[in-house]
Design a protein that fits this description.
The strands form 3 sheets. This protein has a 7-stranded parallel β-sheet, with helices on both faces. A 5-stranded parallel β-sheet has the order 2-1-3-4-5, sandwiched between helices. Helices cover about 35% and strands about 20% of the residues. It is elongated and about 60 Å long. The chain is of the alpha/beta class. It starts with a strand and ends in a 7-residue tail after the last helix. The longest helix has 20 residues. A hairpin with a 2-residue loop joins strand 10 and strand 11. It folds into 2 domains: about 130 residues, 3-Layer(aba) Sandwich (Rossmann fold), CATH 3.40.50.2300; about 180 residues, Methylesterase CheB, C-terminal domain (Rossmann fold).
Length: about 350
């Protein structure tokens, strides 16, 4: 049997420290080795206990979570799961934490709801286990572009080509890198990223600030046009539909697929049906297998499909399952994904 995952809980609330400890210790593969009320105590406990994973509250006294995280990733990079509040401010701070190197986040539970608590415990445990296996890059060891860096190109506008992207754990930063590498006139992009409802709006705004393309949360019935990126709102499925010759967004709150809403599989299957060979698909880093079968459906419908490779993924779950299913023709470093998507939209042949 493999060694148990050692977790240090960092939270200024005694109630949250107690709650997180109780939820995590129920799992036989996890050992909560300690709890700290602030980053200064945490620093000493990290040295003494050498934990595998930290849970870190965003807002704490003496030193805020972001400052502590930035210092940690510079001096001693290790897997961190943020514990965030479901507010717009909490969402923006959490997205900054992911940019600084946190692996994932969970939102604070509604501790008065027993059913909600059980669901929260399952999510928390799964994310701790994924974080323990994740690839963490500190600020010093940030990923470097490959020797043959992609050359950005401008595309002639084509209303028929469409790019579909799915991601989960680590996906907010992976998506950011892809969108930063896209020209303003790139084909339209539809994205399903596993993210809570309160977080998808700030995430879309953050992406819009860093991309030459126009990025927004998708709205039901809106026309999909080149140069624009449409991100599925949290807790809503995004599907591709047709209105005559045009692509449009369709949103609904039907049952979760693969335990997720938005579901990458549902988006990809709709792209397979509506766009077929006019689509290009990609799965980026993420835990689980959502999107793998949808990407296979896209490829079987004639779409060109790729995944992020294991070395550059935070968690090679979703892209790994898709690659093993034969849903993708290539697995590429994240720094090469945008260029390859553009090349496939231009009709480049499959790699040998």
């Amino acid at each position: 049997m493999s060694a148990r995952i050692k977790v240090l809980v960092i939270d200024d609330s005694a109630l949250m420290r107690k709650l997180l400890t109780e939820l995590l210790t129920r799992d036989p593969q996890i050992d909560v080795v300690g709890a700290a009320p602030d980053p200064f105590v945490a620093r000493d406990k990290i040295k003494a206990m050498n934990p595998d994973v930290l849970t870190l509250d965003v807002e704490m006294p003496r030193m805020d979570g972001l400052t502590f995280l930035e210092n940690l990733m510079r001096l001693r990079p290790m897997p961190v799961v943020m514990v965030s509040s479901l507010t717009e401010r909490g969402a923006e701070t959490t997205l900054q934490a992911l940019e600084l190197g946190a692996v994932d986040f969970v939102t604070k539970p509604k501790i008065d709801l027993e059913a909600g608590l059980r669901e929260y415990a399952d999510e928390l445990v799964a994310k701790i286990k994924a974080a323990a296996k994740a690839r963490v890059r500190g600020s010093v060891g940030a990923p470097v572009a490959p020797a043959h860096a992609p050359v950005r190109r401008s595309l002639l506008r084509t209303t028929e080509k469409i790019i579909a992207i799915g991601a989960s754990t680590g996906g907010t930063e992976a998506i950011k890198q892809v969108l930063e590498d896209m020209p303003a006139d790139a084909p339209a992009i539809v994205i399903a990223q596993h993210i809570p409802a309160a977080f998808s709006g700030p995430f879309a705004q953050r992406m819009n600030r860093s991309s030459a393309m126009s990025v927004r949360e998708a709205r039901d019935g809106e026309q999909i046009v080149p140069g624009h990126v449409y991100i599925a709102p949290g807790d809503w499925h995004l599907r591709l539909a047709r209105d005559g010759a045009r692509y449009v967004c369709r949103l609904d709150q039907s049952a979760p697929e693969n335990r997720h809403r938005p579901s990458v599989d549902l988006l990809f299957k709709s792209v397979a049906q509506q766009a077929g060979a006019n689509a290009v698909g990609a799965i980026l880093t993420g835990m689980g297998e959502d999107g793998a079968r949808g990407l296979l459906a896209m490829r079987e419908a004639g779409a060109r499909c790729i995944v992020q490779d294991e070395a550059s993924s935070v968690v090679w779950g979703m892209p790994g399952v898709a690659f093993k299913l034969g849903a993708a023709e290539q697995a590429l470093d994240i720094a090469l994904i945008a260029d390859r998507l553009l090349a496939l939209c231009s009709g480049e042949r499959a790699a040998a």
